[in-house]
Structures are given as C-alpha cells and as structure tokens.
Amino acid sequence: MRKFEKFLEKVKDANPDEFQELIDIHSRYEQLKEKNKELKEKQKQYTEEHEELSRQLAQKESDMSTK
After folding, report:
1. Alpha-carbon dihedral angle through residues 46, 47, 53, 56, given to the nearest 10 degrees
2. Closest of 4, 31, 30 to residue 12, by C-alpha
3. Are 22 and 5 in contact (CB under 8 A)?
4. Mind listing the pLDDT tens digit for each residue in 29-55?
5. pTM surpassing 0.90?
C-alpha cells in the first residue's frame, strides 16, 4: 500500500497545478472512469443505430431492385 501512496505522491508532485491533494487524483480517476463508461454506452448505442439504419437501407435497396 505504501508503494501506491508513494506513486500518488510522485504524480501529485509532477502535476502541482492539477493536484493539490491525493484525493484530487482519486477524484479525477473516478471522473474519468465514469466518463469512459458513458462513452462506451454511447458507442454501443450508436453502433446499434448504425446497424439498424444499414438494415433499413439494405431492405429499401432490395425492395427497389425487385420493382
């Protein structure tokens, strides 16, 4: 556990304009973790929407070619 604390101290010292306390590093981590989760969910949603639109387009093209 002490190694981890030393690592965080180094991060804090290397970035004094961003991190005043060790808790600031933890807070940033939590923010980034949550944002990553949100982005992954949006990516999944957009992928599903894209697949649905592709299916609809393929169906319309198929319908038009059979007429």
Report:
1. -150
2. 4
3. yes
4. 999 999 999 999 999 999 999 999 999
5. no
